[in-house]
Amino acid sequence: MRKCIKVALALVLLCTLLSLAACGDDIIADDIPEQQATTRVIVDSLGRKVDIPAEVSSIITLGSGAPRLATYLDVVDMLVGAEEYDTEDVVVIRDYNPVHIDTFRELPIVGAGGGSGDNNGFPEEIIVVAPDVIIAGFDLEAADELQAQTNIPVVSIRHQTGLAHESFRTALEVFAEVVGAEQRADMILDFIDTALADLDERTTDIDDAEKLRVYAGAVTWNGRRGFGGTYSDFGPLVAINALNVANDAGIDGFYEADFEAILVWDPDVIFLDPGNMDLVNDEYRANPDYFNSLRAVQDGRVYTMPAFNFAGTNITYALINAYYAGTVLFPEEFSDVDIEDKAGEILMTFLGENTFEIMYDGGLFYDSLIIGE
């Protein structure tokens, strides 16, 4: 009997110990938080998988489009370095530059700047400022090279030029994911989509037979161009469903149009980059009879189309160009559009500042032109 009691007591004690042990496991599990991840993986615009810090508080932006997208996402305050060419004179052809040049000038120089896609960063200077992440408009080889040189993650946001090309959307979303600006990116993309839908709806039901035929010349592309520099599927004209005669050549993207081909097309309206008018006027002086034989010149229907591609695409200027071209080509459908007001809305949304007067003072203006003057 006494032996049975001892066995029973032992069993009770064992159960109690097991119960306490189980409770202890729960207490330990509750008291110790899960280990916080120190890194996360980003898939960049080139499809590269890049390990970056879980929390990013400092960045530098290098190469084509990177400083511009930092402005669009309103994260310039995260920069700990700047490119050399953004610290020199105000360059209005880069829409973000006039807004932030003073900020850039206060930062250490960590790269040369430019849109080639090559590695133009300064590795030693980058290591000194020690950003959490380098965000660069670099190609694959350049991104890998700079990452190896600095041992700092390089996220490429390289994208094609054009009015909100799909690769631009990807680049903006990748950048936003790195810096935690997803909400801002969504707002910017929604604004673009709304504007493009508005532009399309105004003109989509107009029969081609009723449209004026248009030529966009002196288009800036990898440098300044004369009258023959043009572009098929030109973003601002595509957005308003315009009849671009440059499409007739069957050449994709930018090309140098033959002057005789332009004469055959004989467009009703001509748009020219005002920043390249010195080149066009030199061509006029060499052959005034050619230009004076064009219908658009005879009718006084030559207008400005400010450059919007420079080390990436100024989405701001491209959208303004589309609305301006709409007022010229489809005056009834765009009768409610005041180009200065519309430009101010676009610039404020993307840049946080209305730089329309700065554009005008820098030669990016909207008006008619007289070739030869």
What does this structure look like?
The chain is built from 15 helices and 13 strands. With 373 residues, it is α/β, with parallel strands linked by helices. The chain has a 4-stranded parallel sheet. A 3-stranded parallel sheet has the order 3-6-7, with helices on both faces. The chain has a two-stranded antiparallel ribbon with strand order 1-2. α6 packs antiparallel against α7 and α7 runs parallel beside α13. The longest helix has 30 residues. The radius of gyration is 29 Å and the shape is elongated. The N and C termini lie far apart (123 Å). The relative contact order is 0.11.
Give, in order, the helices and strands.
HEEEHEHEHEHEHHEEHEEHEHHHEHHH
Low-pLDDT segments:
1-33
Count the DSSP helices. 15
Q: Could you tell me how far the N terminus lies from the C terminus, measured between alpha carbons in angstroms?
A: 123 Å
Give the strand tally: 13
Largest sheet: 4 strands, parallel
Strand content: 5-15%
Strand order across the largest sheet: 10-8-12-13
Shape: elongated
Rg over alpha carbons:
29 Å
Q: TL;DR?
A:
With 373 residues, the protein is of the alpha/beta class. Helices cover 44% and strands 13% of the residues. Helix 3 (97-105) links the parallel strand 4 (82-83) and strand 5 (109-111).
